[in-house]
Amino acid sequence: MKPALIFDMDGTLFKTEKVLTLALVDTFNQLNEQQLWHGEAPVQSYLTMLGAPMKDVWQTLLPGAEPALRKQADHLFLVKIIEQIKADEGELYPDVPLTLQRLKEAGFSLYIASNGMMSYLKTILNHYQLNQWFTDYYGADRLPVSSKTELVHQLKQDHQLNEAYMIGDRKSDISAGAANRLHTVACTYGYGSMEELAQATMNISSFRDVIDIVAMPIESDDASTQ
């Protein structure tokens, strides 16, 4: 039986910065207009945090703000970013649809584990017609978990996955894969630094390289034997 493939979303399948900038600026403009916050949208700060849980993002972008304001900003941002995706302002990485199709046709089961919200993931999957290739997807608000490691653990249990790859561009992806005894693949074209991806089993420089990776015979490695 072929191993399952678990993908991150931002920085792995989807170029998040394409919609993030406009959505973040719109969000902070609205907060300023309502006199709830004063200051420009900290776009560059957020770009360094892509893929992080949103609760951590808002603690950084709105320092000292009340929890209610952070919650409101989070809701506004989600609405704005979904609007941008539906307006076709976003972009997938090259060869994503074709690669997913080939992997599915080859008999691999495909999943998503992301720190993004379920509505965000659903919008991307529907807009780009990717849902036809995925068995299931797990976002940050699907389950009461506090980390991607726990999210991947639950996905693995729910679908009884004995062997799988975790494919992503941030340290949280590699750590989640290693902790769950999965083979880990670092997407070096995404948002993570080489330093934070150093513990990955394998690296890829483009999404289509996934096909070559999974076609290779898998030898014993730290992620699968620890």
Automatic annotation (TrEMBL):
GO molecular function per UniProt: adenosylhomocysteine nucleosidase activity
Domain of life the protein comes from: Bacteria
Hydrolase among keywords: yes
Keyword DNA repair tagged: no
Residues spanning the membrane: none
Entry keywords, A to Z: Glycosidase, Hydrolase, Magnesium
EC number: 3.2.2.9
Enzyme class: hydrolase
PANTHER family: PHOSPHOGLYCOLATE PHOSPHATASE
Name assigned to this protein: Adenosylhomocysteine nucleosidase
Lineage, opening ranks: Bacteria, Bacillati, Bacillota, Bacilli, Bacillales
